[in-house]
């Protein structure tokens, strides 16, 4: 090991920082966060340090460095732009057995600053002993994404409860189990949702061993690109006992589920093995009642044509605690990747999300309102009824020449955007890969100018491709 990691208490300890520029300011801010009694030595100060000085957060020695300044300090940091001066500070500090760090100059450091993830009181420090700083940065980004921002709050509450738990649970094993269950379970979710009083009641219940409830989390997986899953969604997936997922959830997202979790497909698809909504509801209740953390993972957003509301109603009736992590719905994700802004100052002042699963006579949709111009229609599950949809809109006044786009497999590597007119909607929809979203309105023409992802086609190019094949 090149360096021994230590966490040093700096509160009210004298620390010397030599240098008054931006780099010194970055170190100053870190040292002040740790409560150091900071003295900055430099003839001038940058504006940030100036501000700290005027707020009396630090002592300023407005002179050149001299070695006696080291006499009473706990540690020293050199952040000047003079190599010679930095070397001198390093030598002086070593002579006096003081810990010294010359910024960005690892050979002249008897201690180094690790890269940190601060969820105080939990702090994660990473270092490569100065050998691979970019690798450390990448690792830090990954950990930042995995560690919920509520971690600090959770640790603070745990600190408050430590003695009480010790008093009630007499063996180390009992206490370990208690905390493992808390940090992985309902207590953690309640803290993350800002419900601190309920979180402490949960600890109380667990202490009395009266808690056996699992919980349900609805998670929106987004339209396909795993990069569109939210951070919170990822954290929940990494903590699940069992994940019930739909066909629409991409394999890349399923790969992000905790390795030991059970994954159960509860998809509904015409012609393929399907699980009915009632069976899914029953499964959710049964698994949660066994004390499991159940994640219901849905394509897009759980509340947009996803039956998420119904599943929560079932959970509420069975007294199962629940929470929702929203996702990027197909209409938002697929159009963004297709370069189709849903609203635009010139072309569209509103957008409506519609299901194409309307009744045969279409009586459940307000066609005259939907046929008005200057608006965008995003139609989910519209492929099968595309002929009927286009007839209705034209019948109630929308121009048959209105530009439309059908986005198949939006945000996925095989995304295809097929553009044409409202009159051609049926043939466009039939040629798009599924799942597909129908988008109607002038904004779809912008795809030709600002489309940036995947493949594009028009009714015409598709027609000539078919002719060529024939
Ligand atoms: C049952 S709905 C679920 C919608 C989902 N909850 C959401 O918020 O996106 C399924 C329909 O969403 C649309 N859809 C879902 N993912 C899509 C994608 N990647 N590209 C295009 N359309 C998609 C299709 O119209 C599909 O038939």
Automatic annotation (TrEMBL):
This is Siroheme synthase. Coiled coil: none annotated. Residues 150-207 form the Sirohaem synthase dimerisation domain. Then it catalyzes the NAD-dependent ring dehydrogenation of precorrin-2 to yield sirohydrochlorin. Finally, it catalyzes the ferrochelation of sirohydrochlorin to yield siroheme. The modification Phosphoserine is found at residue 128. The gene is cysG. Residues 216-425 form the Tetrapyrrole methylase domain. It comes from Moellerella wisconsensis ATCC 35017. S-adenosyl-L-methionine binds at residues 223, 299-301, 304, 329-330, 381, 410. One of its GO terms (molecular function) is NAD binding. NAD(+) binds at residues 22-23, 43-44.
